[in-house]
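My main concern about presentation is that the manuscript never shows what a single data entry looks like. An entry of this sort, consisting of the sequence and the corresponding backbone structure tokens, reads as follows:
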Amino acid sequence: MAWHARELGIHRRETAAAYPALDRVGQLFFSTLYKDTWFSTLVDAVPFTRWGEYDNEHAGSPEPNRPGILSRLAVLESELLTQIHSGRVDTSSPEFVLATESRWWPLMRECGDERDDGMLALIHPYADIRFNWIRLLLRAPCLSHPTLGASSTPIVARSLSRILHTYASLAATNLFHPCWAQLRRIVTCGQLLVLCTTARELGRSEAEELFAVFLALLKEHVGKFDFIPEYVAAFESVGAFVGLSVPVAPQPAPRVTLPELPFMFDYSLPTWFDTVYEPHLLQADV
């Protein structure tokens, strides 16, 4: 899909402007970028459409023309992954890490702004997960850094905690669907949880609470993947080794039924992406 977007030229402002407004190429590009960076971060590879190869004309625009938060997170992730894999930037240097976080700070506050306004309240958790995952991409490699290690450990602990608790809140609803993509994130958070525990960043009670959340999320994938019981047993052994008690799994509460989200990038119908979450992409009917 990213290859097609580049072939069509919708990643460049000049060629994108040549398309009719009803083609909604702005929406098409942002949805492509979102999926491209999502796949790249899962396989630890550079995005197909690399940062710097496309025009991001809305990135610094004031309200109401700036893109929605998911689009801006996709741009940040594309930028970071491109820099990590370029080999030309030391992404673990204090200068790079601190400057990058300073630019991210306003967006972090926006991700923490939980809303209670219908569809946006359903979408907020995914933005929160995405932002904290990007923070892990930046800070986790610095855990053993001589200068940044001391500040990276609490940031990593906070980010993995946000991801696990957000997934846990989704698991209590019908919006949680076991899949490999979220399993990779959850397992990565479990591994980092062990590191933060051995670094004494987390107290025993909070580490055990997070460990219980992590194991419960792993078990949500039983039946979807054959190897999950082995994963659970392996992590329980690791937890016991570092002194974390393995909690007795409580009886799961009935799931809360929430409105199903429409298909995220259905271009044939008006969706939440068009009308609610990405208002800058709205086009007047002609």
Observations:
- Residues 31 and 265 are 7 Å apart (CA to CA).
- The mean pLDDT is 76.
